[in-house]
Amino acid sequence: MSKKWFPPLSNLERGVDGLHIDDVTPDTVATSSRYTFTSGPETEPLVPPIFHSSTYKLRSVDDYLKILEEGGYIYSRLSNFTCDSVQSAINGIEGGKGTLVFGTGMAAISTALLCFLKSGDHIVVNNPCYSGTYDMVVNILPRYGIEHTFVPTGCPIEEYHKHVKSNTRMLYGETPCNPNMAVLDLEAFGKLGRSLDNVLTMVDSTFASPYLQPVIKHGIDISMHSCTKYLGGHSDLVGGCLTFASVDLWKTVIHYQTSLGTTLSPHDASLLLRGIKTLPVRMERHSSNAQKVAEFLEKHPKVERVMYPGLPSHPQHQIAKKQMKMFSGMIAAEIKGGVQGGKILVENVRLIQLAVSLGGVESLIEHPATMTHGPMLMTSEDRLSGGITDGLIRLSVGLEDADDLIKDLTQALDKIPDSLLA
Ligand SMILES: *Cc1c(COP(=O)(O)O)cnc(C)c1O
Predict the structure, then answer these.
(1) How far apart are CA 343 and CA 335, in angstroms?
(2) Which of 2, 115, 290, 350 could form a disulfide with 397 if both were Cys (CB 3.0 to 4.6 A apart)?
(3) Element (H, E) at 286
(4) Which residues fall within 8 angstroms of residue 260, CB to CB, at 6 or more apart?
(5) CA distance 331 to 341
(6) 151 CB less than 6 Å from ligand 1?
(7) 105 in contact with ligand 1, CB cutoff 6 A
(8) What are 158-175's pLDDT values in tens digits?
(9) Residues 121, 169, 211, 229: which is the catalytic one?
(10) Which one of 77, 191, 305, 407 is the catalytic residue?
């Protein structure tokens, strides 16, 4: 491919009207980042249009080749104005050198893995990790001759180092980790990656959002988010994104995205852009609500253990404090009474919804041992060795009133009979 495309730059990144991205905080970037035509009518829409068109009328055959080489719009799998708008907005919040958006979070992950790993290569990944990532690493990559080593989530960075081999090409981390909320030290992780030849670091930071944890600014090569979660924030779209520490990485991946066809639909890009404008305020409320709920759960007699990065009892609380602006809305808690205890809780909440996914305005709860990390995906030995205990529940704390959420949890926990606790 001879493409000379470059990442789309927002008004702030280009310094339009003399206002540059370095003059404002990420809060303002989220609300005020705009991607606009560089020439055209006198006025510009505040909200970018949704470009439905799959194809574009050309003025000449030469134009086709020129656009293919230099960038522009000819066909929506290659690039789309609405997607470029949201790419530049996310890139500004991450502080990256370029962002790409994808049809789902898994499309972003699979495109990156297929792009940077080839037959004979090796990847080190934390375990547990997101169920789709686990499936990809365990069941799909080996078919292409790509091998992996798992390290325990929350382990010291030296553990990653220990498993690096001559064919290791990527260190992959998730933080906070799904579903047990362990935290990875981003600065140390990035530093290890840079100390090795030809090894990229990639981090799934979905549970934190780029607003609370701008991974690229902490020295990581590739930041990944499921936009389905906090970035979209309203449980009304699926999408994913990758942000890169260099334009070269961006260019390498856009080639693969074009061939794999993992682009985002312009409709979803538009919804995503709308979600991002309130990302900072939503994350503040998610975080303050979750802190209250976590403190409540930690004191409850039917709860064995609570994993929330904002609690001093969290094993990596100090690291979380260093790299997260606030602690986000995800909580893991081990309910007494094993599988039964966990199930009774998730089936008896009334305000909180029993559903997978996370990061939306409404609170959601799930039971990993029987749902996302259940027998369909892994054996119970593998599940337990990754610390996903029978009674573990995962709670995505929404934007409702925290006291109402606590009341709801109280009445549901009351339904767990004492006979189960023995
Ligand atoms: C949801 C999720 C993904 C996958 O995203 P999809 O949009 O569902 O494809 C990846 N990582 C984490 C941590 C997630 O929560």
Answers:
(1) 9
(2) 290
(3) helix 279-299
(4) 107, 110, 111, 114
(5) 17
(6) no
(7) yes
(8) 999 999 999 999 999 999
(9) 229
(10) 77
Residue 112 C-alpha to ligand 1 middle, in angstroms? 14
- Catalytic-role residue among 130, 134, 211, 230: 130
Is ligand 1 within 6 A of the CB of residue 372? no
Q: Which atom of ligand 1 is nearest to the CA of 228?
A: 7
Tens-digit pLDDT profile for residues 120-151: 999 999 999 999 999 999 999 999 999 999 99
Residues 96 and 31 sit within 8 Å (Cβ to Cβ):
no
Secondary structure of residue 125 in the 3-state scheme: strand
pLDDT tens readout for residues 179-236: 889 999 999 999 999 999 999 999 999 999 999 999 999 999 999 999 999 999 999 9
Share of the chain above pLDDT 90, in %: 83
The mean of the pLDDT values for the chain is: 94
Atom of ligand 1 nearest to the CA of 174: 13
Alpha helices in 300-373 (DSSP H): 317-323, 338-348
- How many whole angstroms from 416 Cα to the centroid of ligand 1? 31
Q: Which tokens go with 49?
A: 């249009």
SS3 221: coil
Place of tokens 């312009």: 266
Cα–Cα distance for residue pair 199/123, rounded to 1 Å:
9
Asked about 169 being catalytic, the answer comes back as: no
pTM of structure: 0.95
Q: Kindly give the distance from the C-alpha atom of residue 330 to the centroid of ligand 1, in angstroms, as a whole number.
A: 14
**Ligand 1 touching residue 175 (CB < 6 A):** no
